[in-house]
Write a structure and sequence with these properties.
single chain, about 425 residues, alpha+beta, 6-stranded mixed β-sheet, 5-stranded mixed β-sheet, 16 helices, about 45% helix
């Protein structure tokens, strides 16, 4: 693995991860702009811009973009998160210039045609409707908003029906000019790629980026709280959460081991106790969602109306036990799960491209795999229990959708964790 980084005079960072034994290259642009950079009146615009970027440039129509990619057997996609937006493609190695050219074109020369805007607006509104019709999906948005109320980090990435219905072409173009600047972007490639040649191509391709304007991101303020929505469903979709750990927190890797140990697999405590021993759920797992300045630690369960009265207390019991009784055997098993996922990802050009870009965005540097593995290996049972106690000190967040009447009161659940 050979990682090289070049920062151009305009602040654009270009990183490559060379894998000389493969026949493909994954190329992408990661932008330091997501839902957290949106003011309340434009919530959802990062996601809408991600859609519109593919809807035509000065030299390519929306169909041209799709056809050029698929003519060479490649594929292109994008996603928006709370802190970043990514545009990426995967091609055979000799088609790398085409992938780079298309991504550069859509991020600098998109025309935001009004007719295309109206068509894509309808698509995004359908996407929002679909999310609302998927309870095990939308419950996570409610969970986030309840944990971080009245702030950007708590708002949905997709935005709302009312706001998305009103976004104009000028609003999109202004947001792009403000946020899609050279210092706010990382251009990454992984696979059979030469760093110097790729840097020269990227430098030329991205020569039309606007000058930096600077953009703000308000500090995340975890609050916690209770959200319940009755729906006539067969299951209750339940989330119980606490304040998590930021990416650059010294406890980040210990928290990752903790989440894996508690609910990260079939041997985890939650799976064994709630599904295998008691048969109360089909799905139960824990997760850690980290940001640059905070995070969420949560447990999800999908369970029946009658079973939910027992599931929530058992969740609380397992959380409480984890602060006092974790052994080295289960800690070693969780460490092994984490390390295997880290090392298996090294076989994918797409995963390595994203990893290099995200590390630059989050940490300002790429992190050697050996360094990450060493930090995971250094986590012992005492460190996991320390993190468990730290997490349990924060206020509680509960979100539930379905036949929620059988769930005990928020105050009763909070009392179980004190």
């Amino acid at each position: 693995m050979t990682i090289n980084l070049t920062t151009l005079d305009n602040g654009l960072r270009i990183v490559t991860d060379t894998m000389s034994t493969v026949e493909t290259v994954s190329v992408g642009a990661w932008v330091d702009a997501g839902a957290r950079h949106e003011h309340p009146g434009i919530n959802g615009i990062s996601h809408m811009l991600e859609h519109m970027a593919f809807k035509g440039t000065r030299q390519r129509s929306a169909r041209d973009i799709a056809v050029e990619i698929e003519n060479v057997g490649g594929h292109v996609n994008a996603y928006t998160s709370r802190e970043h937006t990514a545009y990426y493609a995967k091609m055979l190695k000799h088609d790398t210039p085409l992938a780079l050219d298309i991504i550069a074109d859509i991020l600098q020369h998109s025309v935001m045609d009004p007719e295309e805007l109206e068509r894509e607006r309808a698509v995004i509104l359908q996407e929002i409707h679909q999310a609302h019709d998927t309870p095990d999906d939308i419950v996570f948005d409610h969970f986030q908003e309840t944990a971080y109320p009245d702030q950007a980090v708590g708002r949905p990435v997709l935005g709302t029906l009312d706001l998305v219905s009103g976004f104009s072409r000028d609003t999109l173009m202004d947001y792009m000019r403000t946020n899609y600047t050279a210092p706010a972007m990382v251009i990454a490639a992984a696979g059979n790629v030469d760093h110097d040649a790729f840097t020269a191509m990227a430098s030329e391709a991205f020569s039309d980026l606007p000058a930096p304007n600077g953009h703000d991101m308000e500090t995340a303020r975890y609050t916690g709280g209770d959200f319940r929505e009755h729906r006539d469903l067969e299951q209750v979709h339940l989330l119980l959460g606490l304040q998590g750990i930021s990416y650059d927190d010294p406890d980040y890797h210990a928290a990752s081991v903790y989440s894996t140990l508690l609910g990260g697999g079939m041997s985890s405590r939650l799976f064994q106790e709630i599904r295998e021993k008691r048969g109360l759920v089909y799905s139960v797992y824990s997760f850690m969602s980290s940001f640059s300045d905070g995070g969420l630690f949560g447990i999800y369960a999908g369970t029946g109306e009658s079973e939910v009265t027992e599931v929530l207390p058992v969740m609380c019991d397992e959380l409480a036990k984890s602060t006092l009784d974790i052994n080295e055997e289960e800690t070693a098993r969780a460490r092994a799960q984490l390390k295997s996922s880290i090392l298996m990802a090294l076989e994918s050009t797409s995963a390595r491209c994203e990893q290099a870009a995200r590390q630059l965005m989050v940490y300002g540097r790429t992190i050697p795999t050996e360094e990450t593995v060493a930090k995971v290996d250094a986590v012992d049972a005492d460190a996991v229990m320390r993190v468990a106690r730290r997490v349990m000190e924060s206020p509680l967040t509960v979100a539930a959708i379905g036949p929620v009447e059988g769930i005990e009161s928020f105050e009763a659940t909070a009392a179980r964790l004190n």
